[in-house]
């Protein structure tokens, strides 16, 4: 996440908890260190809206929030009809208490463009 070309950390754990593709356990990593680095570098943490992922899990979502991370809610759509999954991700963010001002995908276009073009070391 320290690479200046990274804006969003996606598929945080890579887990699958249900669905036709089976299940996959979450990857293991030092979440506190990763989220601290995301916060330090202004990298948003993805809230994946697909119900078979619910990634990051609630406890990691809470940790990222506590570490001061920004967030990006995405549908992870693989077909046009799946764009409506954004509502699931927005509901997860709301339940977790993520303030709207920390959700980059809710920002006005000018602010989003400024964030993605920021100079980072």
Q: Could you name the key traits of this structure?
A:
121 residues, alpha/beta, TIM Barrel, three-stranded parallel β-sheet, 3 strands
Care to describe what's here?
The chain has one domain (8-116): TIM Barrel (Alpha-Beta Barrel). 32% of the residues lie in helices and 10% in strands. The protein is built from 4 helices and 3 strands, in the order E-H-E-H-E-H-H. The chain has a 3-stranded parallel sheet, covered by helices on one side. Helix 1 (31-41) links the parallel strand 1 (8-9) and strand 2. The longest helix is centred in the first third of the chain and has 11 residues, at 31-41. The mean pLDDT is 94.
Largest sheet: spatial strand order: 1-2-3
CATH architectural arrangement: Alpha-Beta Barrel
Low-confidence stretches: none
* CATH H-level superfamily: Metal-dependent hydrolases
Structural class assignment: alpha/beta
Tell me, what is the CATH class?
A: Alpha Beta
Number of strands: 3
Radius of gyration: 14 Å
N-to-C span: 11 Å
CATH topology: TIM Barrel
Order of helices and strands: EHEHEHH
Fraction of helical residues: 25-40%
Q: Roughly what is the average pLDDT, rounded to an integer?
A: 94
Shape: globular
Mind summarizing the main beta sheet? 3 strands, parallel
Query: Please, how many domains?
Result: 1
Proportion in β-strands: 5-15%
User: Helical stretch count?
Assistant: 4
């Amino acid at each position: 996440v320290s690479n200046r070309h990274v804006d969003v950390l996606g598929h945080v754990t890579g887990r699958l908890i249900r669905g036709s593709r089976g299940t996959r356990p979450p990857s293991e990593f030092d979440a506190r260190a990763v989220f601290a680095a995301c916060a330090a570098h202004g990298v948003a943490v993805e809230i994946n809206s697909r119900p078979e992922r619910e990634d990051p899990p609630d406890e990691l979502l809470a940790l990222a929030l506590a570490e001061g991370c920004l967030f990006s809610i995405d549908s992870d759509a693989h077909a046009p009809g799946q764009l409506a999954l954004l509502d699931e991700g927005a509901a997860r963010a709301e339940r977790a208490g993520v303030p709207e001002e920390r959700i980059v995908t809710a920002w006005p276009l000018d602010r989003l463009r400024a964030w993605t073009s920021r100079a980072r070391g």
